[in-house]
Amino acid sequence: MRGAVVDAETRCVHYRTDLDVIAIEFACCGDFYPCHLCHSEAVDHPAAQWRTEEFQERAVLCGVCGTLLTIAEYADAHACPSCAAPFNPGCKLHWDLYFRVPLG
Ligand SMILES: [Zn+2]
Ligand SMILES: [Zn+2]
Ligand SMILES: [Zn+2]
Fold first, then answer.
1. What is the DSSP letter of 55?
2. In which band, very low, low, confident or very high, does the pLDDT at 104 lie, cut at 50, 70 and 90?
3. Is 24 left (phi over 0), alpha (psi -120 to 50) or beta?
4. Is residue 92 scored above 70 in pLDDT?
5. Which DSSP symbol is given to 36?
């Protein structure tokens, strides 16, 4: 895990409500960051987005239980399918920063 992480459930200095418990693997560098701001502050390249063909990549980490979700699973999820931790619905507003995959 990289970025400005502030606790063991992958909250960061930018997003740290109770619901901010996921981290996303970036398609450009293969590293997990809690958010797009953490990524842009840590590296000197633009973020790449996952493509539709990569829908089954396990690129989303639940910080509560450590389960890796596929992008497809995360697209449909309002909570972790493994531990039921609720996910922040606001993250979907930033979907296109991470994924070039149709939402829902
Ligand atoms: Zn990157
Ligand atoms: Zn962040
Ligand atoms: Zn979980």
1. T
2. low
3. beta
4. yes
5. H
Among the bound ligands, the one closest to the CA of 42:
1
Q: Over the stretch 7-59, which tens digit does the pLDDT of each residue have?
A: 999 999 999 999 999 999 999 999 999 999 999 999 999 999 999 999 999 99
* Sign of the CA dihedral running 86, 67, 72, 52: positive
CA 63, CA 41: separation in Å to the nearest integer? 21
- Residues across the chain: 104
Kindly identify the ligand whose nearest atom is closest to the C-alpha of 23: 2
- CB-proximal residues (5 Å) to ion ligand 1: 26, 28-29
Integer Cα distance of 71 and 54 in angstroms: 8
For the whole model, what pTM was predicted? Answer: 0.94
Distances (CA, A) of 60 to 63, 72, 93: 9, 10, 16
81 Cα–ligand 2 center, Å: 23
Question: For residues 39 and 59, is the Cβ–Cβ distance under 8 A?
Answer: no
